[in-house]
Specification:
With 132 residues, the chain is an alpha+beta fold. The chain has one domain: Nuclear Transport Factor 2, Chain: A (Roll), CATH 3.10.450.50. The chain has 3 helices and 6 strands, in the order H-H-E-E-H-E-E-E-E. A 6-stranded mixed β-sheet has the order 2-1-6-5-4-3, covered by helices on one side. The longest helix has 17 residues. The model has no long low-confidence stretch (mean pLDDT 93).
Length: 132
């Protein structure tokens, strides 16, 4: 996508934010091309394809997280690539622990404005569940 701009990248990130915060794996998957590659960590096999991304978002987020709050800041847009710094806080459904993530996205877009390669680097901090 030669015409990626900061505003089109921000619009994509806003849809990503809404999908994560609302726990909507279908909306999240719709942001990616059918053959997208999602590299979550440098050491794990990437997710390949929109359906694998949807399944991951369903299992890892929609069913396992609540009270999600996501924010981002765009670092750069060059050609068809957008870079952003992001932050997310959520509560794990199973344990009640609060998880804080801080990371970076590198998103490559196709001609249809869908993400075709999604790379992320992040750090996690877990805070024990608060007594009820």
């Amino acid at each position: 996508m030669a015409d990626l701009t900061e505003s089109t990248f921000a619009a994509w990130l806003d849809r990503y934010k809404a999908a994560w915060e609302e726990g909507d794996p279908g909306a999240a998957a719709a942001l990616f091309s059918v053959d997208a590659v999602n590299v979550e960590t440098s050491f794990d096999e990437p997710l390949r394809g929109r359906e694998a991304i949807r399944a991951y978002r369903n299992e890892g987020a929609a069913l396992a997280q609540r009270d999600v709050r996501f924010s981002y800041e765009i670092a750069a847009v060059v050609g068809d690539v957008g870079l952003s710094q992001w932050h997310c806080v959520f509560t794990r459904v199973a344990s009640g622990e609060t998880v804080e993530l801080d990371g970076t996205f590198r998103c490559t877009f196709d001609d249809d404005g869908l993400c075709s390669r999604f790379q992320e680097w992040w750090h996690r901090r877990t805070i024990g569940a608060l007594p009820r």
